[in-house]
Specification:
Radius of gyration: 29 Å
Number of domains: 4
CATH class of the largest domain: Mainly Alpha
Number of helices: 20
Number of strands: 10
Strand content: 5-15%
Largest sheet: 5 strands, antiparallel
CATH superfamily of the largest domain: Transferase(Phosphotransferase) domain 1
Length: about 500
């Protein structure tokens, strides 16, 4: 305590005191004292000593710890001093909820901290938004350094409502307890609401249906009520580290699946309306399509499966079921579903829908050759023909065959020239991909022409601006305006050749 001046009280729990203080050099510190009658006092100080030994190993936990002994308000107490961490607690930082990729980073960081302590045979115990500080640089710091428990021991811990695992509240310090708390903290970060406010009438807390299925399923596994239903920490951390890339890939494929679900809806509605069992299957398929459009694949799955109970020949339900498996991260099962559909006798339109959907799932699994074959199988009379040729050309470009992409796109644009304004977004992506292929082959004037047309058709397509900026840069023409539009709108697919690398190089 010598050399420290108390500035203000930060909190006054029942049996401990937290103060902000400054050193003689003006450095900010946090001091925490525990009253002599604090439950499990010796264990708390043992944890503080452990953390002081791990200083530097866990940079995301308060460092420079040292035990202190002092007299406070006439009682002999013990405590510790830590550096003051400027920033916001997660409770304030989240607002009404964080973007999904930021929540994944939060989960990964917390799992990493928990892993360090579990290798020392301890769990963190009290992970919750109040105990996580987001610094000004965006880094996370876990600040509750005295609630650690030795793994697989009996403990006394009343817990934090909504965040403490059931087994820990019952006195069992199991390794899985931290995963539950991390899942619940992630749920708060997504929604800005306490888990208790998200519980249904039966008290069940679930991730909102609006969250992408990859992240939603992961969080719900983390916060499963039974410890045996949660993943082990190592596999959870490994999955979390790979989740950002999978989320980006899923979001990219969703841009194509949503139009396909709309197309399936139209296909159902304009088709011949059946009677009896066929009518029930028809209605259930329509309900499933609406659930997909609302972003609720679980409910959609139920509708499609019921639709097929009423009528196994409902091709729309079979196709939509395959897409729904993919939305639920069961892509291989979705591929098998669509392959089984294509083994049946189908109309040209049904075959086109099934091949298009199958190609999208192959793309999601990086099966480029299989995806190209499926796109090629779509016949000209099918409503998905133009988009299939567009996607096929994109894969040709990515595979290094820009000349073939040019032939495909020029042919399609010649066929659709008379109906250019019917679907401006699709026409814009056709022009964008053709400009990309021209850029790849060095035809800069042609590339500038068609990319300018793409922007006229759809002014909000970032990739057109990005590619046009690169074309102009290679042509020694001013490109700053297009570059600004590229960065403001945010490139999606492709990561436009050259220009992004150029920006990084300049930086």
């Amino acid at each position: 305590m010598e050399g420290l001046t108390l500035v203000q009280s930060l909190s006054h729990p029942l049996n401990n005191h937290v103060y902000e203080a400054v050193t003689r050099a003006g450095e900010r510190r946090v001091i925490r004292f525990f009253a002599a009658d604090t439950p499990e006092l010796s264990r708390k100080m043992e944890m503080v000593n452990l953390l002081s030994q791990l200083e530097g190993v866990v940079p995301a936990v308060h460092g420079k710890l040292r035990p202190e002994f002092s007299l406070l308000q006439g009682k002999f107490t013990v405590g510790y001093i830590v550096e003051f961490v400027p920033g916001q607690p997660l409770t304030e930082y989240c607002g009404k909820g964080l973007p999904e990729l930021e929540v994944v980073r939060l989960i990964t960081d917390l799992l990493g901290i928990a892993q360090v302590f579990q290798t020392q045979q301890y769990i963190l115990g009290d992970i919750k938004p109040d105990n996580v500080i987001v610094t000004e640089s965006g880094n996370l710091v876990y600040v509750d350094v005295d609630s650690l428990f030795a793994v697989n021991t009996m403990v006394y811990f009343p817990g934090s409502p909504g965040y403490t695992a059931p087994e820990l509240k019952d006195g069992h310090a199991l390794p899985s307890a931290d995963l539950f708390s991390i899942g619940r903290t992630a749920l708060f970060a997504l929604t800005g609401q306490s888990p208790s406010h998200l519980a249904d009438r039966q008290g069940v807390v679930a991730c909102p249906a609006s969250v992408s299925p990859l992240l939603r399923n992961f969080i719900e596994r983390l916060m499963a009520l039974s410890p045996i239903e949660r993943p082990d920490l190592e596999s959870a951390l490994q999955y979390s580290q790979g989740l950002p890339q999978r989320l980006k890939r899923w979001q990219r494929t969703q841009r194509y699946q949503r139009p396909l679900v709309v197309l399936l809806t139209v296909f159902v509605v304009v088709g011949v309306v059946p009677v009896g069992a066929g009518w029930m299957s028809f209605r259930l398929t329509a309900h499933g399509n609406q659930a997909q459009l609302r972003g609720d694949p679980v409910r959609a799955l139920e509708h499609y499966q019921r639709a097929l109970v009423w009528n196994r020949q409902n091709v729309s339900a079979h196709i939509a079921l395959g897409l729904t498996y993919h939305a639920l991260s069961e892509t291989e099962r979705g591929i098998e579903q669509l392959q089984s559909v294509l083994r049946q006798p189908l109309s040209v339109e049904e075959s086109g829908l099934a091949h298009y959907a199958l190609a999208e799932l192959y793309e999601a699994e990086n099966g480029v050759v299989s995806a190209m074959a499926a796109y090629q199988a779509v016949e000209p009379a099918a409503s998905t023909y133009v988009q299939s040729r567009n996607n096929l050309a994109r894969l040709y470009i990515l595979s290094g065959n820009a000349e073939q992409a040019i032939r495909v796109l020029e042919s399609v644009l010649a066929q659709t020239g008379s109906s250019r304004r019917s679907n401006e977004v699709l026409q814009a992506t056709l022009h964008k991909n053709l400009g990309w292929a021209y850029l790849k082959t060095g035809r800069l004037e042609d590339a500038q022409r068609v990319l300018s047309e793409a922007i006229q058709l759809e002014p909000l397509l970032a990739d057109s601006y990005c590619l046009l900026a690169e074309v102009k840069r290679r042509s020694s023409v001013a490109f700053s305006t297009d570059l600004i539009s590229c960065l403001q709108l945010g490139p999606t697919d492709p990561s436009p050749d050259g220009i992004i690398g150029y920006i990084l190089e300049q930086l």
